[in-house]
Structure formats: structure tokens, C-alpha cells
């Protein structure tokens, strides 16, 4: 009974103790490092007031919900590290590493940060730092440790010798591999070579990933000596490596030397068998289709020398067989022998230049013709035209007679109303004397507004026209028109050859014709006819 009572007393004291009372355990939320590196896992106890007593600190590894002890620190028993971590885990501060505490040097357990050295992939887990205190009880916090693994990257040719065979087929020519990386790497190819890449990821038992990429091309003469670059990206690291493809292929044969102008008695002619091959050609063989080679021929390496002057015997189809370790390919040329040399025309470049000059001349001629036609249609004004416009302006600006309203503007006369350009226009029709003496009313006056700019551009002026004939009913007079202040100019003018007609209105000017004689380089002079 006494023991049971003691137990309940202790329990009540523990329950009544202020929970937390300011005590807490501080850790980093997460830490990370690479395989082989060293990393610190921080753990600090924040004591309260009144402070509690720390009985023990324990670091534990949490694996699939199960806790595994890593290290402990006890003020009385000292420090203990379990075997799996003994050589790689230690407490950071020397005060914690003291085996026992004394009155002169008490053990300090407020900071129990541990140091992981030589990290392994198996160290990746969640770690718990737990403080046992009295009377506050246990306080703990957790930190997640992530372990990365740098990959091993390399680039190799799939084969030291790549052969372009017939029939052609695509094959992998280079491999780029990033092995045992965590997380996996990213592989890219950089090349001007036309091809395609394949990618494959393999997850290893230890949690790493191996990435493998092959570059596939169609081997040919064009792919020989092409550069292929592999770019591997892992975190902030970048790996770049390149290889030069070595592609072996059959010879590509071409015979040179025949210029199409082999004529009788020509000297020093030859045929050369040029072959592009990898590896190099080892054997050249010459032959003549449907016959045998001429007697006066000398073969040196890949060249066929013809001794002496050219004869008809040199004509025929020559074949060159080039052989390397991959295969044999042939080239041929047909030689024709003529009696006389072929005429040598000007080089093609000269013909091209002549063609350009001819085309340019045609273009210039067409443009010039268009400009001339346009200029003829758009004839510029002359000084006489400008003088006529000035007279017309003065007529249009004169005041109208009192009580007379200007009629509406009629349509402008067209070019069909004008007289032929080869002779001057006839004089205006003559009026009877009875009409001259009768008074004019406002209804009889017609005001015609003419678009003078349009007429001046469209109607060329004729030489000055002087009508010296006297009217049958009226006599010519130089007397000024009476009541000039009341004179009204009726516009626009009627253009007839070289004079302008306008009608006068006012006392002493009824029925009179006012002729404006246009003289070259002079302003028009006004004369009234009674």
C-alpha cells in the first residue's frame, strides 16, 4: 500500500508540473549531403524557468516506423555510440563528450548536435533528438537527412570502327552514360549530324539511377569525321564530352582529265582516277570497255598516261576500279577523239555579263519610254498660260453690278466644243444694231464659271489672234467705256485661239464686245467695240 501511494504521489506531481513551461527542442527541418561528405544534425534544448533537469539525450533513426538508437549522452554515464555508427558519428561539443560530471565540471547537454562523416546512401532517414527531463518529462524533435550520389559519367564509341555497308542501315555510333546518380541525371546531344537519340533509365538496389543514351545514325561517307557531343546535367554540375566519328566506307570514284577536246595529234593527255575512301584505296585497275588498252599507255598509281600524239585509237570508254578493305567501286569516262580542235567560245562568265547588260538596257529603255509619254501628257505651263490665268483671276474678282445675281455654275465645256488646233477659231457672231441698242436684263446675263486650271492644262494656246475687221453695225473706237465703275465682267472667258472675249455691262457699254488681245510677252490690252 505504501508503494502504491508513493506511485500516485509521483504521478500527480508529474501531471501537475507545468507542461512545457517554455522547454523545447530545436532542430533543422531537413539536411542534405553527398555520399562521402560530412554533415551536422543540430539539436538544442531550450530550458525554461525554473529550469528542469536533463537526465539523458538520445539520437534515434526512424526506419519504417521503427526507432533505432544511434547515440546517447548521459550526465552520469557519459557518451555512447552504437556500432553501426561508431566510427562515423560523434557529438560536436567537447562538454557533451565528457564521460561523467563532477561538481567542478558539470556535464552540459543543452547542445547535443551530432556530426555525420563519410555519408552513405543508407544514412538517408529521419532522425529524432529526444531529451529526457525531470519533472517536465520527454521533449523531442525530428530532422530529415537526404543523401545524394554524384553520378559517374562517360562517353564512348559503340565501336572503334564504324562501317558503312550495303545495304545501309541505322546503327548506334556513340553511347553517353551517367551511372549511379541520385537523383538521375539529364542527358542531351549536341551535333550537326542527322540522327536520333534513345534514352534508358535503370534503378539500382541502393536507390541510385543509371541513365544511358545511344545516338543512332546511318553510317555513310558524309558522317565520317563528324563531331558528336554529349552534355550531362546533374544539379549544378555539367559534364561535356565529345567524340569524332571514324566511319569506313567504299571508294567514291571519279575520273578526271578528259576535257571534251581530244583531237588528232594533241600531245600530253592523261586520265586520273580520283577516289575518296576510308581506309585509303590500295588497288587501282584500268580497263577499256569492249576492247583492250592502247599500246602506248603507261599506268602510274592512279594515273593513265597516253604517250605520243592522240590518235583515233585513244577513243573509247575507260573504267577505273578502286579497291580498299571495305569494297570495290568503279568510275568511267567516255573519250571521243575529233579530227580538229573544238572551237573555243568565250567563257560562260562573259556571256552572263553580256546578258545582264542587255537586260539592263531593255529595262532602261522601257522606263525612258514611259517617262516621255507621261511628260507629253503632262505638258507644263508656259508663261503665256500663267498670264491668262492672272487675267481670269482679275475678272473673277471684279464686283458684280447692283441688282444682278450670278446664275448657277454650269458644267465646264469639254474638249469637243473647241475648234481644231490647226487653225484659229472663228470670231464671235455679230449682233444686229437693234440688239445692241436694247437694254440687258438680269435674266439675259449668263455667268459661266470655268475650271481654268483644267482648261489651261487641256487646251494648248494658239499664236495670237488679232481681229482687225470692223463690225458691220458698229465702228471701232478707242474711247474708254463710260460708267466704268459699273462695269461687270462676265466670267469665265471663252477661249478661241489667241484672244479672250468678255462682255461688258454698264452705261455706254451695252452690247459692246471687249476684246483682250494677247500678245507674246505682254499683258492683254483691252479695247471696246461700240
From TrEMBL:
Its main location: other. GO terms for molecular function: virus receptor activity. Pfam families: C2-set_2 (PF08205), V-set (PF07686). Residues 18-146, 251-338 form the Ig-like domain. It is a single-pass type I membrane protein. It is found in: Cell junction, Adherens junction; Cell membrane. GO terms for biological process: heterophilic cell-cell adhesion via plasma membrane cell adhesion molecules; homophilic cell adhesion via plasma membrane adhesion molecules; protein localization to cell junction. Residues 1-22 form the signal peptide. One of its GO terms (cellular component) is plasma membrane. Keywords: Cell adhesion, Cell junction, Cell membrane, Disulfide bond, Glycoprotein, Membrane, Repeat, Signal, Transmembrane, Transmembrane helix. It comes from the Eukaryota. The chain crosses the membrane at residues 350-374. PROSITE patterns: IG_LIKE. Residues 399-441 are annotated as: Disordered. InterPro entries: CD80_C2-set (IPR013162), Ig-like_dom (IPR007110), Ig-like_dom_sf (IPR036179), Ig-like_fold (IPR013783), Ig_sub (IPR003599), Ig_sub2 (IPR003598), Ig_V-set (IPR013106), Nectin/Nectin-like (IPR051427). Cis- and trans-homodimer. Can form trans-heterodimers. Belongs to the nectin family. Cell adhesion molecule that promotes cell-cell contacts and plays important roles in the development of the nervous system. Acts by forming homophilic or heterophilic trans-dimers. PANTHER family: NECTIN-1, NECTIN-RELATED. This is Nectin cell adhesion molecule 1b. It comes from Cyprinus carpio carpio.
